Amino acid sequence: MLILTLVLVFLVIVGSTCWFGLWNNIITLCNFLIAAVAAYGLLDVAKGLFDLADPSITKYAGLLSVWGVFVLTTVVLRTVTDSLSSVRLRFHPALEIVGRILVCGALAVGFILFALSTLQFVETASEGQSNSLVEQYHSLGMYGWNSLADYWAAGPFAF
Predict the structure, then answer these.
(1) What domain range includes position 88?
(2) What domain count does the chain have?
(3) What is the pLDDT of residues 45-104, one digit of tens each?
(4) Of 101, 91, 106, 117, whose CA–CA distance to 32 is shortest?
(5) Closest CA relative to residue 120, chosen from 70, 75, 69, 65
(6) pTM of the model
């Protein structure tokens, strides 16, 4: 069921972003990457705020923190980039089609890996039991997300 959901999410993301063009998808991909890094970077701060506000939701603080910071950062970045980039950049039609598909696919894969990496905050198993399905997909998401981060850290953006 989870695999079917992931395939459906992939198709929905590709189908909904492919219509906006290569320039908009590149901006959306950059916004997504910044928001995903910010979500994990501000995780401890946001969890602390949840713990201060209501200690009874500590069980869900990690999941709410990651997704809350991610959504908030995405909305702010989208607002800023829409106001800064009011003119759409035109590409060669062949590059536009191929690039649009590749960037949409990268955006969908990145979102799925980010979503799978947040499964570490889900507590579905009882005391003493393990939930192997959640652990299996969480490790897949973390492996993919960490591989992507390692690639970027060793690439031209390394500092």
Answers:
(1) 19-123+130-153
(2) 1
(3) 877 777 777 767 667 778 888 898 999 999 999 999 999 988 888 889 999 999 999 999
(4) 106
(5) 65
(6) 0.73
